Amino acid sequence: MPPKGRDGPGAAMPADDSTADAQTPAPNTPAPRTIFSVPAPIKRIFDKVPLITYAPNELPYRAANEVDGNRLFIFTDDEGARLGKPSFNPQCLRWQAYLKFVGIDFHTIPSNNHASPTGALPYLLPALPLNTLVPIPSNKLQKWAIEQVHCEEEQQISMRFEVYASLLDTRIRNAWLYALYLDKDNFDAVARKLYIEPSTSNAVVRSVLATQLQQAARDELLKTSDYIDVSDLEAEADNAFEALSTLLGENQYFFDRRTPGLFDASVFAYTHLLLDKSMGWRHNRLSVLLRKYKNLVRHRDNLFEKFF
Q1: Which CATH number is 230's domain given?
Q2: Which intervals hold domain Metaxin glutathione S-transferase (predicted)?
Q3: Which residues of 38-49 are buried (b: 16+ CB within 10 A; e: fewer)?
Q4: 104-122 pLDDT, tens per residue?
């Protein structure tokens, strides 16, 4: 998914008083200059205009005034938001699907990381209490949903949840990052269309954003390997699909649940986007691998038809 820039301008660090006192030059002795010394004219400017720490981004005005009910801010376009279509971003789609699965009504609102008060998507503005402007970030959405509808917390029911979730968070996600951001044809046909072109019309800014997205994906993949081997990434994803297929078996939902839950949403977030022809993939080797496992394809198709 797109990199999340969370670091904002920082405040100037105050000097440590004890250290400053110990190193104060004797009277009438000029302070020694170093390569880190700030020229006096520049220092006078900063003394008059000190650095400040900016507050978090404010919520979009229309978010609090034009839509009633719960509002989920995700990567989508205006048409997708109006029709309630699945987000094109796996992290957003995971929570969009989960809220639908547990029966919580909400409106989707197009947004991006830079417009998010939390610095990342998705986030939710609940309908209650009225006029609340305190967003609920994705890492607290499940807890909020459980409080609203008293649904089960799957992690407490099945010890296998975290084990199999790691397949999604590592093997499948890594293959996804390569396919979307580092495969040149896919990047130009899919990532540019979804993440870069809607952000700005400035060619220079688009070029910078493209470089940042690709470098962020490359850095992420190199955290666990000295080099990027696409064949290895695809093989690992295939192994993960096989494990998930075995886990699902002939059941309709994972862990033999009567209704879909968070794990179903997590799997759907990738399987749907890999099988969705409207994404515009140029090279989709992961889809070929996924289609070998008929029960995973059936799982995706059933959820899409029932909830979207």
Answers
A1: 1.20.1050
A2: 237-302
A3: eeeeeeeeeeee
A4: 999 999 998 888 888 899 9
Asked which of 149, 172, 187 is the last residue of a domain, the reply is 149
Q: Is the dihedral of CA 99, 100, 103, 107 positive or negative?
A: positive
Name beta bridge partners: 44: none
- Domain final position from 149, 166, 192: 149
Q: What percent of the chain has pLDDT over 90?
A: 69
Report if residue 291 sits inside a domain.
yes
Residue 132: per-residue pLDDT: 73
* Burial per residue of 81-92, b for 16 or more beta-carbon CB atoms within 10 angstroms, e otherwise: beeebbbbbbbb
Type and span of the H or E element at 205: helix 203-221
N-to-C CA span, the chain: 22
Cα torsion through 103, 262, 235, 286, rounded to 10: 20
134 and 167 in a common domain: no
* Reported pTM: 0.79
Q: Are residues 184 and 258 in the same domain?
A: yes
pLDDT tens readout for residues 273-288: 999 999 999 999 999 9
Range of the domain at 120: 70-149
Contact 116, 57 (CB under 8 A): yes
CA separation for the pair 73, 122 (Å, rounded) = 5
Identify the CATH number of the domain in which residue 107 sits.
3.40.30.10
Contact partners, residue 254, CB within 8 Å, separation at least 6: 164, 247, 248, 260, 261, 263, 264, 267
Whether residue 21 is predicted with pLDDT greater than 50 in this model: the reply is: no
